[in-house]
Amino acid sequence: QSTFLGIPKEFPEIRIDYFKEQLGTLPPKACFLSHIHSDHLQGLDNYIGPVVYCSPATKKLLLRLEKKSVRLTRLCNEVEIEPQRMYRNLGPEYGRDVLRAIPYNTPTTIELDPCQTITVTLLEANHCPGSTMFLIENDNKAILYTGDIRAEDWWLESLRRNPILVPYTRGWKRLDCIYLDTTFCGPSMTYETFPSKTQGIGLLISEIRKYPKDTAFHFNAWTYGYEDLWIALASAFNVKIHVDKYRYEIFQSVGDASVYEYGPCLTGYSALSMDRCERMPLSEGCLTLDPNCTRFHSCERGYVCEGRAGSHVVYVHPTINSQIREPGAGYPRNGSGHEYRSLSSLVTIDVMIDANKNSQRRN
After folding, report:
1. What confidence tens digit (pLDDT) does each residue in 170-185 have?
2. What is the pLDDT of residue 50?
3. If exposure means fewest CB atoms within 10 Å of the residue's CB, which of 46, 49, 185, 223 is most exposed?
4. Biological process GO terms, please (predicted)?
């Protein structure tokens, strides 16, 4: 749960992941959004302010988000209801296209005022579709804001290899601060290690294989960040994963691999025919709208689809550890204490601030 109030002390002119007005502070000159989980969206539903910079996938997903109550009404009553998108005020239909997408790994100069610019680079955060860290620099200062991350070994290695970060990993440049979102590290709850996502997926598949082959499963993907599990289940059992129309269209909106790398794997892709007269489907993707063609479901939890009605259904719940809970999926989307220390040791820094508690530790 993010409790960061959005103002990095090195760059007080900007806001990150918190968009409510704050007494005693000047209005921001630029804002940044790391991903679409609700604890990072506070104030965006009635936002009036400068441009909000984010990743391409975050922009597309955010403009399609709807309240669960509306989605369930549409599903359970089988009625067509006009989409009530929560953040439509940020899109072009309101005459204000507030969101600006920046591609990953592309240093981008942003003018805060005629006398002040910053350079911002988005770095993939291994958390959910579109999630990003922000490397923010000017001639005198540099910070890294992580947002939510999983600092697994392979991901840390990708940062070590990233040419943009070489000056920091080799010690030629120093970060003034890392703003670290330590969801599972605190006085009352600290997890030193977590299973990797791959380990969690492997354990889940091993448990599912123990059930009779006619058993139906419902995976409670209650938020974004569990898409790897869908893909792994589809591959392991040669099946499709049933989702409701809302979820399918959400991922269809990021179906281009240039926007979200797993988009085509989820909803498929097509190409122009030889005569360029029509598009030919080359892959259907692993998600389906047909509830009767599979025994694996990840549709809205409060709605019982045809494929689950009358069947023995095993409900799979994501957990943050590897203990099986009828069955569970040990698949934390945030990092452990060991992972956060590994990230902070990768680069040369002066101060590390826990963005959840606004406490700091000087190196």
Report:
1. 999 999 999 987 777 6
2. 95
3. 46
4. double-strand break repair via nonhomologous end joining; interstrand cross-link repair; telomere maintenance
